[in-house]
Amino acid sequence: MGTVTYQEVDHSSVVWICHTCGVPNYSAYSFSCSSPFDLTNSFSSLETLGSGEFLPSYASSPIQKKQTSKVNKKRFPSLRTMVVNCESIRAKKEALATSVENHKPHIIIGTESWLKSHISSNEVFPPDFTAFRKDRETGRKGGVFVALRNDLIGTHQIELDTECEVVWVSLQLTGCKNIIIGAFYQTPDERDPNYLEQLRLSLSRMKVDQGTVICLAGDFNCPDICWETLTVKPNGKNPRVCHKLLEIVKEFSLEQLVREPTRHKNILDLFLTSNPSLVENCMLIPGISDHDGIPVIDMTTKPKLNKPKPRKIYQFNKANNDNVKRDLKCLSDTMVNRDNTPLSVDDLWQEFKGGVTKVMDDHIPTRVISKRQQTPWISGKVRSGLRRKQRAYNHARKTQKDSDWEKFREIRKEVQKETKKSYWSYVRNTCIESPKQFWGFVKRLKQDTTGIQSLKDSGQLYSESTRKAEILNKQFESVFTEEEPMSDLRDPNKFSYPSCPEINVTTEGVAKLLRGLKENKASGPDNLPGKILKLAASELAPALTLIFNQSIITGCLPDDWLTANITPIYKKKATGLPPQTTDPFH
After folding, report:
1. How many whole angstroms separate alpha carbon 133 and alpha carbon 86?
2. What angle do CA 566, 571, 572 make, to 5 degrees?
3. How far apart (Å, rounded) are the C-alpha atoms in residues 136 and 118?
4. Contact call for residues 267 and 260 (beta carbons, < 8 A)
5. What is the reported pTM?
6. What pLDDT does 579 receive?
7. How many CB atoms lie within 10 A of CB 512?
């Protein structure tokens, strides 16, 4: 029986008898107890109250539920996309890095990159992003890109390229179909319906399955469209282009989600999607170019993440070398002085590898490499300026006064200047302090990590990871020599050539080779570093000599020795070849 029901019955003229103790409600012996009306156990165990004329022997009291304080944890979106007009990303790379650091996007869709093919992506993009670009081949300005965070799994869809400035990337999602992300740019001076026809052609080439989501964003330069009513404003500059864009939007069932101006009073940067129900938020942040705002879209989709495995590093400078050598000598003696129990070459190698690994874990400290801070040059002064710029932008959006917009643009210019100063000051100090870090910095800027591009097989272009792996495997298999059957070998007794002397591997020779190993070389598939082999060369030489001689006698090799890490290196294209052409691999 609840409290409210009990009070109403208690204050009424109704007389009731407790079904447990048989005491009426007006008796001094009555007390609150459970009843069939309340099935939950909301009372504590019975307690002894003592003796007395008007007191029961036992009673229970309701359990007070503990008040748990709710902790409001900041929930980050599953997938955040930033649509930015760069107006030369080389000049705005520091400003872009600070925006990325503040708002943590997973995807950056960019227009007006102003890049050329000789400029590597690592020179301009944040280091933890992989960029898929389409640069303008002739003239200046233009250029689009889609940059994915490195832990996302994306594939460049080259087969969707047309003569317009558009680039497509397929992003793998968890539990549903993929999402196809595109970046598009149309110049304000050369708006032509035929140009948008190339965009329609690109969309029509998609093999869209049920559940696949299309997201197309960029600078469309169509300010005369009212996206609330999907109509063209009267007296517009180029209504034919606007009508053509609306036709494409309706044909492919897309919806435009940016509702606030991104440049002055015009909505130029758009975000079109075939599934608007996945978008939970669309906001604007301060821009980095003449576009005042950058649309940031939060989607509820969950992408597949390619999280890098933590790397365990052995700290040999802190190792107990005496104990390492002692235990490795015991391992070697155990293998050499074993009784006549025959072991295969692979069993001997597995025993050796397992023993060396155990000794390293026992006597050499380790540490796990964590992700380094990618933007250490963002100082406190820069962060303060970013907050000041954000406040000025919010105030200008609220008042819509020209004076406030001018003030915001002045603050933005000051912050960009301070950001550039902080970045180059950090680079200068790093180069002066450590020449090794300087050359590492230069090497990183020259390298691009866009993965394996789409490959052509039998005249058809493939961009799926599984299909590309099959094509590469087929290519590698084709260059290996097939051994001829040995049944037709000539009789060796017919020839007078001297026989090859018996090959005998000595312990001294193995020890000499181990001492000549280069410590800084990376370990192979067996994960045994060269430093431990060189450190205990004399102690490990007998065991390795046993394995080598056993391998020569039996004609067998350990399975680890038949495994190799193969990395395809893409050759540079010959001049005049189309971008879809793929050359052979080294």
Report:
1. 14
2. 155
3. 12
4. yes
5. 0.67
6. 41
7. 12
DSSP calls for 96-160: HHHHHHHH--SEEEEE-----TTS-GGGTS-TTEEEEEE--SSSSS--EEEEEETTB-EEE-GGG
pLDDT of amino acid 362: 92
The contacts of residue 418 (CB under 8 Å, 6+ apart) are: 381, 382, 385
pLDDT at 583: 46
Nearest CA-CA partner of 218 in 336, 83, 418, 66: 83
d(CA 581, CA 570): 12
Q: How far apart are CA 226 and CA 229, in angstroms?
A: 6
Residue 92 in contact with residue 288, Cβ under 8 Å?
yes
CA gap 517, 507 in Å, rounded: 16
The terminus-to-terminus CA distance of the chain in angstroms comes to 82
- Cα–Cα distance for residue pair 137/549, rounded to 1 Å: 61
Q: Which amino acid is at 404?
A: D
Q: With beta carbons less than 8 A apart as the criterion, state whether 560 and 527 touch.
A: no
Residue 164 contacts residue 218 (beta carbons within 8 Å): no
Amino acid making up residue 224:
D
> Which one-letter amino acid corresponds to residue 192?
D
Distance CA 126, CA 108 (A): 10
One-letter amino acid for residue 60 of the chain? S
359: nearest Cα among 546, 542, 533: 533
Q: Which pair of structure tokens corresponds to residue 502?
A: 């018996």
Which positions of the chain have pLDDT values less than 50?
27-40, 42, 49, 68-74, 76, 573-586
Residue 36 sits at φ, ψ, to 5 deg, of: -65, -15
What tokens does 2 get?
């609840």
Judging by beta carbons within 10 Å of its beta carbon (0-12, 13-18, 19+), is residue 198 exposed, middle or buried? middle
pLDDT attached to residue 481:
72
| pLDDT of the residue at 33 | 44
Residue with tokens 């063209």: 232
Please state, in angstroms and as integers, the Cα–Cα distance from residue 199 to each residue in 46, 178, 194, 244, 504, following that order: 78, 20, 9, 11, 70
Closest CA relative to residue 241, chosen from 158, 164, 143, 161: 164
288, 408 contact by CB (below 8 A): no
Residue with tokens 């002739």: 138
pLDDT of 269: 95
CA angle 260, 265, 268 (to 5 degrees): 65
- Look at the block and give the residue holding tokens 């020795």: 561
The pLDDT assigned to 178 comes to 82
The confidence score (pLDDT) of residue 10 equals 58
- Name the phi and psi angles at 214, rounded to 5: -110, 130
Residues 533, 358: Cα–Cα separation, whole Å: 14
For residue 492, what pLDDT is reported?
60
- Phi, psi of 280, deg, nearest 5: -100, -15
| Contact predicate 328/359, CB 8 Å | yes
**pLDDT recorded at residue 18:** 64
Structural contact between residues 143 and 296, judged by C-beta atoms closer than 8 angstroms: no
pLDDT in the model for residue 39: 46
Rg (CA), the chain: 36
